[in-house]
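Support reply, case 0932

Customer input (verbatim):
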Amino acid sequence: MPMFIGQIVRHAYTTHPEVCIAGVGDATCDKASAQVGQFETDNRIDQDLKNIWPEKGGGGTGQESYQNMAYFFARKVELDCLKRGKKGLVFFFGDEGFYAKVSKEEVKEIFGDDIPKDIPSSEIFKELQKKFDVFLVFPRKSWEERKGDIDNEIKQRIEAAGGLVEG
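Our regenerated output:
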């Protein structure tokens, strides 16, 4: 990350990039399910990255709350580039799926917004696409393979803490 913005400029991918780092967890069980830094144009992004707290937990459902971060970027972020007829870019680096809806309760708890009802995730991602070109970087392993990895990790954590999984 220390050279990320410099490489964008050096290779002329775009001029004057503004980059925001965010962390997504599972709002149903994580303490820090939505963490967002500032849009930065230089190495201050390194501090934002250091401030993101990786919980390394998860709820074991095969889902994270990416739809909540889509809500945030769709409704809470203003982009100057839109005035010039351009969009921003959003990259989700995910290892699980997202929930089917943006929960009005989660939106209130996380962002302080009162929305009248839940929003289908498909709708919030369509809304996000009006402001951003959206990309999802996702592992190629099947859910069964990843679930096996998750189950094995949970078993190791329980046994390391002195608990029993079998019997």
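We compared this against your earlier run and they match. Two observations from our side: The mean pLDDT is 87. The longest strand covers residues 88-93. Please reopen the case if you see a mismatch on your end.
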